[in-house]
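Appendix C. Worked example: Permease
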Amino acid sequence: MDVQLTAAHWVYLAGILVILATMALRKNIVVPAVVATFLTALTFSGSIVTGLSAIFNASLVAAKELFNIFLIIAMVTAMLGALRQLGADRMMVAPFRRVMRAGTSSFLVLAAVTYVISLFFWPTPAVPLVGAVLIPVAIRAGMSPLSVGMVIAICGQGMALSSDYIIKVAPGISASAAGVEADAVADKAMVLSLIVGGTALLITYLVQKRHWRAPSPDLLVEWEAAADRGIGDTRGDDSSGGGGGSRPPRRPEPAGGPSGGGEQAATATAVLVAPSDPIADPDAEAEKERRGTAKAFAMLVPLAYLAFIVYLMLGKFTEVVPPLQGGDAAAIVGGIAALILFAAAASTDRGGFLETTSDHLVDGLVFAFKAMGCVLPIAGFFFIGNPEFAGPILGISADAAGPAILFDLVTTVQSHLPQNAFITSFGILLIGLVAGLDGSGFSGLPLTGALSGALGPAVDVDPSTLAAIGQMGNIWAGGGVIIAWSSLVAVAGFARVPVLDLARKCFLPVMAGLILSTVFAVLVF
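Step 2, the predicted output written as structure tokens:
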């Protein structure tokens, strides 16, 4: 079906090109995205009021879609803050040091754990689980925060989600649109995802290894301090930047203050050291109790999340408990984090536990929005191209369908593809990548699937092969690896790195893998 392109389509396309060029120049793309949003809405509606309103509405719609990611980052960050105050975070990761003793071993463990959890349950619950338990260990073992984020994104949002071999939602959508069997798409997508992921991981390892450092507990303290400075957290009250939360709290000062002491302090000291009345040091007793509490929480957190994984498996493979969907699983991860936060705060500060809990939650929310807030106006621009979100952004009535600006552009491009197996395959890959620009890895699957079914016989390529290639492009882009306004924000949040930097670093390894996998698909399948 021929698509009539309007001025709004061309303005939107120009906005995409400007944003991509700005990213290539390693500049922030918030301003270009906001300006492109305004111009697209103005051109589409012919009303400056709609154009101005679209700037706000686009960010609002994006916030509604992405707030679950922000909230889970906030809750898990708040939980980790309470555990740091206890000193339980370092005890919690101690057992993993036996395996994750250096950068290479940490790299492999992170990759394997993230892939397995994401393959069975999607990356939604996998990222906070890995973020809460394994990321601190990897940092202590010498990996850079950026390389940690790259490994998790490539193995979770990329390699596991692009095949979706266990849950099979993505292959089902692609196959139904292409008119082929879902298992045929799933099998080929699994092979291609391993090629893309393996290539991207190898390049990541070779490029990032030179940035790794010798294992040291100071690396974890430095990482936490840098993040605390970034969110304005001064609660640590130490000259290293507020990151002292991972160290044990200082012992209470005697009455009279740390200097001077006065008569009361002198009397108390004399009583404690009097040889005729040996009384246990109350500070030592308090320290012993604190360490016991910290050890209990260090065991509780991994056990709680392990129990959750077991529950997920029971729901997936048995009928003992009802199965959980991705959103439900993420909600439970956040709920567990909240309860642990309350318990840890109560153990640390029994009298002021209500205020302490609130402080941790506020710190978590501030961190999530300070680190990821710039994603909202960017995502808002790309949401205009999706008919599901364009209506609310452009002020169109809920009863009327919104314009499919991005999909119209993609459909127009495909009509000009030459009839050649290689060119068609790379064209489907490109269309998948462009369709993924809206930040949703699945929204473009019906388009690439339908094109695969139509173009496959004409170029003598199995439609299931083309559908699998299109699925790779859709999900590796929009699923959360090379597009910053997607679930990649969750990975960046837990690794505590700028999401735009993470997307840029992932781009070349992933694109190399996608090119290699497409060539493999045409030659072998």
